[in-house]
Amino acid sequence: MTTATLITADQFDRMSFDAPVELIRGEIVEMTNPGGRHGGVCVRAARVLDNWVDQHPEFQVISNDSGILLERDPDTVRGPDLAVVQLSSFPGMELPIGHLKIAPSVAIEVLSPSDRWREVLQKVYLFLSAGVAEVWVLDPEVEQLHFFSDSGSKIYDADKLFASVVLTDFECTVRSLFHR
């Protein structure tokens, strides 16, 4: 019987890869490329959030599956499509070069064609258990925002106004996260 050698988050940070990967319970897992629609929604949602950040410079939007340390022993480093971080949480109010060791205020996932709800929900609850206050799952297929927090979940349709609980005075129509 052979056993896999698990790696730590720090070892993972020092490695380079030719494909997108995450560290899940000490093992490197390759991710699929999500496609054009997914990327377009990520950019649009980032723009809406970044416009809000212009008025709230204590926050910053990060993207590209920036890794967040979610579990230790074995380590898990996963990245949401987008996240909003409160800069005062970080030493010197600067983001680290490697993965985040402090949970963001909000993590945003955009569903891609290969995503399965079971795996998405596992990731959502992993984010919440690591201290992320809100997780938003954007579903481009039906233009819905699925909102998750410790106090529960709710689905917002495209025509609904959505307001964040942790991002002071952030609100937008759900449709604006998908379209101009």
From TrEMBL:
Keywords: Endonuclease, Hydrolase, Nuclease
Protein name: Endonuclease, Uma2 family (Restriction endonuclease fold)
Domain Putative restriction endonuclease: 11-151
Pfam family, one: Uma2
One MF annotation (Gene Ontology) recorded for this entry: endonuclease activity
Transmembrane segments: none
Family matches, as InterPro entries: Nuclease_put_TT1808 (IPR012296), Restrct_endonuc-II-like (IPR011335), Uma2 (IPR008538)
Species, as recorded: Planctomicrobium piriforme
UniProt xrefs under Gene3D superfamilies: tt1808, chain A
PANTHER family from the UniProt entry: SLL0198 PROTEIN-RELATED, SLL1222 PROTEIN
